[in-house]
Every structure is written in C-alpha cells, then in structure tokens.
C-alpha cells in the first residue's frame, strides 16, 4: 500500500469493520468465523461477497500489522486510532489540547511511517 492508500484505509477502517460485519451476516455467518474455508454454496453473489471480504481483510490485516510494527509514537498511534474510529482532525484536536493542523501533521507522519514500513516489508 502506498501512503494515499494507507490514509484511505485508516479513514475507512470503521466502514470496513461495519461492512465486514454486514457481509458476514449476509452469508449467514458470525463475524470472526473463517467463511473462506466453509462450504456454504457457490452462488455468484456469495462469491462476490467472499472476494470483497478477502480484499477488505487483506487491507485491514496489512494496516494492523504495520501499526503494530512501524514504530509510531504513542501520540501518533492515538491519533490514528481516533481516525480509525471515524473522527476528523478537528474532532481529535480537543482530546490533545492542540490545533487540528498539529493533529494533521501527526497523522501525516504516522502515514509516512506506515508507508515506509510496508514498502520495506
């Protein structure tokens, strides 16, 4: 993933999580169960859902692995965590007693570190 994809994945993380739950439910499966190894039919719709889930899972897994290993500062980690919850820099700023510009700089720094980590790996 490049830096822009990382930004989008972080910003869409909440959506991905909610969408994954919805897609798992549409297959009649609880979230967290490995539906890829289950034999639940092979309708065209189910195959489309599986492919979409696999793509989302790959992005989320890569992002979470990078978050754990990329060497983010505590503040960067906290800001990324808030962004993953769907918060904008303006909504995050009061939590850290700083401007949204400062939050954006920390977010940019975190995304750069994540991109660098993923490029190296």
Please give a quick description of this structure:
By secondary structure, the protein is mainly alpha-helical.
How much of the sequence lies in strands comes to under 5%
Low-confidence parts lasting 5 or more residues at pLDDT below 50?
none
What is the rounded Rg? 17 Å
N-to-C span: 11 Å
With helices defined by DSSP (H or I, 4 residues minimum), what is the helix count? 6
**Average pLDDT figure:** 82
Tell how many strands the DSSP assignment holds: 0
Q: What is the N-to-C order of secondary-structure elements (H for helix, E for strand)?
A: HHHHHH
Number of domains: 1
Q: What is the helix content? A: over 70%
The major beta sheet can be summarized as: none
Overall description:
There is one protein chain. With 121 residues, the protein is mostly helical. The chain has one domain. The chain has 6 helices and no strands. Helix 1 packs across helix 6. The longest helix is centred in the middle third of the chain and has 26 residues. The model has no long low-confidence stretch (mean pLDDT 82).
What brief labels describe this structure?
single chain, 121 residues, mainly alpha, 6 helices, globular
Draw up the topology in text:
Layout lengths: L2 H9 L1 H14 L17 H26 L4 H11 L4 H8 L3 H21 L1
